[in-house]
Amino acid sequence: MKIRKINAILVIIFIITAFTLNAQFNDFNSSEMLYHVSLVGAVNNPGVYIVAPSTRVSEVLKMESSQILLEEETDEETKNIALTEQVNSMRNIVIKRKNTVLLVDLEKYNIVGDLQNNPFLQDGDVILVHPKLGDVEITGAVKREGVYEFKRGDKIADIIEFALGLDYYADCCKTEVFRHIPDKKNERISVNVKEALSNAESPENIELEVGDRIYIRHIPEFDDKSQILIQGEVLYPGYYSIEGGSTTLLEILGMCGGPTSKADLQNSFLQRLSKEDNKDIEFERLKLMLVEDMTELEYQYFKTKSREMRGKFSTDFDNLWKSKESLIDVLLKGNDYIYIPRKSFVVQVSGQVKNPGLIVYVPGKDYTYYIEKAGGFSWNARKRKVQLIKANTGERLHPSEEDILEIQDMIFVPEKRDLDYWKITKDVFLVFSQIATTVLIIQNVTK
Length: 447
Hints:
The protein is an alpha+beta fold and 447 residues long. Helix content is 32%, strand content 22%. A five-stranded mixed beta sheet has the order 2-1-5-3-4, covered by helices on one side. Strands 7-6-10-8-9 form a five-stranded mixed beta sheet. Strands 16-15-19-17-18 form a five-stranded mixed beta sheet, covered by helices on one side. A hairpin with a 2-residue loop joins strand 3 and strand 4.
């Protein structure tokens, strides 16, 4: 029994000793595994940083930035500068490691994910951050326009890589580098970027300088939307791609399956929405004027243009679809809009009638028939100023009983003007008084 008790005590002592040694080993091991790296140069908070073995260069710079913002003695202005103005270089970082020097470009790591430019640190490394030299700018047909930090030795292909490459509609032969030269004439350098990207040693892959601006041109009209929209009574309405300058209205009508049986081709229209084709300098000028300042001719022009649909083609859809005649066909352009309405067998009567609204169309009837169906004229109708507005052209006519209406035509009956009888009476007395005065003057002169 005594031997068993002694053995149990020895086992307990062994276990306690093992746990104690293991804890001491772990403490020793963890303290040995931490690295000490130095951060110096163009940084706001240089010094020695204690980091884990799996730490990269970018993490130390983040620690340095965070430490500045957390310091109690740092005033608000300094914090704002640290947040908004980056004066230290992200592309010109040097790691001094025993007898080795590593060059680090964190911008290349951040943009293209190059891990070689964000290496793991080792114990005793010194990170030297140089000040920022300046920037270069790239705009135009690239994936990401922007301003990028400049590093000595940068070539045009390097900055295009930062911009994530060219767009598919870039005009590689029309690239320009604009270079500002103090106290001298600014320089424009033409570059073939296709050659520069295919061969890094090509003379086209020119070396850049601080402040250079790179313009990558687009292929002319390549980004113009070469598509049209057709809606309404066709078999397959929607967007259709076109070949600018060669696709015609008749071809598109065929592509979309043609008009349905309910289509009203007489009132269909093609509208050109591109701004360059809808410029009307005179109309834009008149829009800025008061009506009372316009001449009679200017007012008539303004009134007519205000009623017209901008960019509408004068096209007979019905004749074109039936005859398939190329002479009356229309060449389409990107963003054109085609609308085929549904047949609506009605005539609209609007204005001063007793029951305005839609009246069922009856072939061969004139405007008086539809006014009668609308309940006749109201008490304040201007019967002599009735207007007939043609659905297919928008033309306004003074109708007669000989004018036969068509589907969707509109009859408009205007209202009588409100007369100010007191003003009219005053004007009559004024005229009479002026006449009487004139007569008296003449009599006195003749005597």
